[in-house]
Amino acid sequence: MSATVVLVDDHAMFRSGVRAELGQRVDVIGEAGSVAEAIAVVTEKRPDVVLLDVHMPEGGGLAVLEALGPALPDTRFLALSVSDAAEDVIAIIRAGARGYVTKTISADELADAVARVADGDVVFSPRLAGFVLDAFQDSPVAPAVDPEIDQLTPREREVLRLLARGYAYKEIASQLFISIKTVETHASNVLRKLQLSNRHQLTRWAVDRRML
After folding, report:
1. CA 61 → CA 57, 75, 78, distances in Å?
2. Counting runs of H as helices and runs of E as strands, what totals does the chain give?
3. Across the chain, where does the E strand assignment appear?
4. Residue 10, CA distances (Å) to 34, 52, 99, 150 in order
5. Which among 87, 99, 97, 93 has a CA at the least distance from the CA of 206?
6. Do 31 and 40 meet the contact criterion of CB atoms below 8 Å apart?
7. Would you state the pLDDT for residue 4?
């Protein structure tokens, strides 16, 4: 029996293409074009696998994982992204995804990846596995709960990561599809909640917690 799948991507044409390419090899039982829609559809459908776009408005794949991962232990998440940046791969795997493949993958390879993730395997596009091995090698076991991180909203965590990587407010606004004023508000909230004074302290805080 083929795995049941929900496609999550903010581009309808891409979702249609993936559905057509996968054909009868998997059972696509739902689609979503936003974080809120993904949370609703996946909660209702409870698929074996969620094919999850990493970069979407309103928090992207990280926001979906943070909302659904703990609540749906039998559903597995496979990131499908145009990005092959190490920070994107590591962040989404740390959040609970079972694999990460890029959108250059062939239909046959994608169908195989979905089946393997549904069976409990971990799947990566070839060059991405090294990022994850490097990130987790000799890494101390993180505490199950970090009160400081837990007080931040998913969007505040995204802004925190981008700030710590050196992005300007304008660049963060463009990447997250929000206004510069909203970025400033999130940044102020992050510094206040973490009791930090500036971006330098924020970067050190994020590095210490391996959030980059």
Report:
1. 9, 15, 10
2. 11, 6
3. 4-8, 27-32, 49-52, 76-81, 99-102, 123-124
4. 6, 10, 20, 27
5. 87
6. no
7. 93
What does the DSSP assignment read for 155-183? HHHHHHHHHHTT--HHHHHHHHT--HHHH
Domains of the chain, first to last: 4-136 (3.40.50.2300), 147-208 (1.10.10.10)
Give ∠ CA 116-121-125 in degrees, rounded to 5.
75
Among candidate residues 147, 179, 167, 178, the one with its CA nearest the CA of residue 59: 178
In the prediction, which pLDDT does 142 show?
Answer: 46
Residues contacting 150, CB < 8 A, separation 6+: none
Q: How far is CA 2 from CA 18, 43, 100, 114, 118, in A?
A: 16, 20, 20, 10, 9
Give the Cα separation of 99 and 128 in Å (integer). Answer: 10
Amino acid at 193: K
Residues of the chain with pLDDT below 50 are 139-144
Q: What is the DSSP letter of 152?
A: S
